[in-house]
Amino acid sequence: MPGRLRIGWEHMSDLVDTLERFRRGAELLAVVLTGVHGDEIDFTTAPGKWSIRQLTAHLADTELVAATRLRLVIAEDNPRLIAFDQEAWARNLDYARRLPKQSLESFRRLRGENYELLKALPDSTFERTGMHSERGPLSLRQLLNLFADHTESHARQMQAIRDEYKQAKEKK
Question: pTM (2 decimals)?
Answer without folding.
Answer: 0.91
